[in-house]
Design goal:
About 35% of the residues lie in helices and about 20% in strands. With about 450 residues, the chain is α/β, with parallel strands linked by helices. It is globular and about 65 Å long.
């Protein structure tokens, strides 16, 4: 049996196995104690277990005297945006993101629409072991619906100063869209329609069943890439089930690269508004190259949206995100958002009169190799030994160990849920990246 995954963003598990009604009740109850009073925004992705989870979550919140605003099947960033726009005291996005059909999750948000900080998570966790008490019949919360949330989110994107809707319309983009039958079905076509795009929908049914593995990795997108290649479109757009990750495909059906997704968005934003950038420790060095060309600085944080957002606020970043295709644009809200990433991409292509493959060619080229090794001893023990060995190099120990060499970098991270170490290497050539990652894999094996 797999474990319940608990992180700064909430809890995630297999429905009926590790994510049970009892677990959902416990964490929702703790969240209600953390919120204390007011209203909570609830939204979910399309998976068929979402309604069941929503009913439990809503019932617990109402029983604690907290009002619930149900915004339906929406992207996670729409839940984040709506918490902020409706001045709610918190939010819960019911989505296991890129996990398969059998998974679901509670993503817990504070009053700013952001994932709970480590400090806030400690407070919430303190309520998990306390006895439960519920309100009487005459002091229950009230349930409301607000099905305008997606359109309000989209309108806010269209109203951004950096977006010129009429100019994009003139480009008349022809796009193949793959939403993996997730929440993107209810939102991305609407956004593209506002931009006057011709959209070929693929995996855009409202069935709640993912037709393939939903993580938007190239190996899971073979059919989609072939569809793009054969459909004579300007580009392909793929989103994960809760629409916080954006994957682009070139007109030839080739992966644009999730690392390049954030790099090109950073480049476009900095061409308009110079300022700081924040990314995580595993994101491509291309972002730093691009920022340097505009005289701007890049700051890195531990992996995780909450960590990137924290760093963005510390340095007043104008844009940030993670190399997995997550764009965070604070002029809209502090959350990874594929919808705003799509808008920035179309604006970039339009304003610079580029094809998507030409845009890819304009980005500094790096190659990333990712491996992992399962351990029989504590990952911390291994990482500490490596920190000692490489202490004279340019290292960062905020999130495992990152070592910056002149021609490449290495990031070694432990998993929070498994006894493994992840090895991420970026270099200027694929062969070099693969060779270095293999060397570190063998070095860790020797230490074990």
């Amino acid at each position: 049996m797999s474990k319940l995954m608990v992180s700064v963003s909430g809890i995630r598990g297999i429905v009926g196995e590790t994510l049970t009604p009892e677990i959902i009740t416990d964490y929702t109850y703790a969240f209600s104690e953390f919120i204390s009073k007011g209203k909570v925004i609830i939204g979910r992705d399309s998976r068929i277990s979402g309604e069941m989870v929503n009913n439990i979550v809503t019932g617990i919140l109402l029983s604690k005297g907290i009002d619930v605003v149900d915004i339906g099947i929406v992207p996670t960033p729409t839940v984040q945006f709506t918490v902020k726009s409706l001045n709610a005291q918190g939010g819960i996005a019911i989505s296991a993101s890129h996990n398969p059909n059998e998974w679901n999750a509670l993503k817990l948000l504070n009053s700013t629409g952001e994932f709970l900080s480590p400090e806030e998570n400690k407070i919430l966790s303190s309520f998990l072991t306390k006895s439960k008490t519920y309100n009487l019949w005459n002091s229950l919360g009230k349930r409301h619906t607000y099905f305008e949330a997606i359109e309000q989110h989209i309108q806010a994107i269209l109203n951004l100063q950096i977006i010129d809707v009429e100019k994009i319309k003139k480009r008349k983009f022809r796009i193949l869209l793959d939403c993996v039958n997730g929440a993107g079905v209810y939102s991305v076509p609407k956004l593209l329609n506002h931009f006057g795009c011709e959209v070929i929908e693929f995996n855009c049914e409202k069935s709640g069943i993912f037709p393939r593995l939903p993580e938007p990795l190239p190996e899971n997108l073979i059919e989609t890439m072939n569809m793009v290649k054969n459909s004579k479109v300007d580009l392909g757009i793929v989103v994960d089930p809760d629409v916080d990750r954006l994957v682009l495909l070139t007109e030839t059906g080739e992966p644009f690269g999730e690392e390049n997704t954030i790099a090109q968005c950073v480049g476009y934003v900095l061409s308009k508004v110079q300022g700081n950038v924040a990314i995580n420790l595993s994101t491509t060095r291309a972002v730093e190259d691009i920022a340097k060309s505009y005289g701007c600085n890049v700051f890195r944080s531990p992996v995780g949206e909450a960590n990137v957002v924290k760093k963005m606020k510390e340095v007043n970043a104008v844009i940030g995100g993670e190399g997995s295709g997550g764009i965070i644009f604070p002029a809209l809200h502090y959350g990874r958002d594929a919808l705003v990433g799509i808008a920035l991409t179309l604006q970039n292509l339009t304003e610079n009169n580029l094809s998507i493959s030409q845009l890819k060619s304009s980005i500094p080229e790096y190659f990333i190799s990712k491996r992992k090794i399962e351990l029989s001893i504590s990952p911390d023990e291994i990482i500490n030994k490596l920190i000692d060995k490489y202490s004279k190099e340019n290292i960062n120990t905020e999130d495992g160990l990152r070592i910056d060499f002149e021609d490449y970098w290495v990031h070694l991270r432990k998993s929070n849920t498994e006894p493994i170490i992840r090895i991420i290497v970026e270099a200027k050539s694929k062969d070099l990246a693969e060779s270095i990652s293999q060397n570190f894999l063998e070095e860790i094996e020797r230490l074990v």
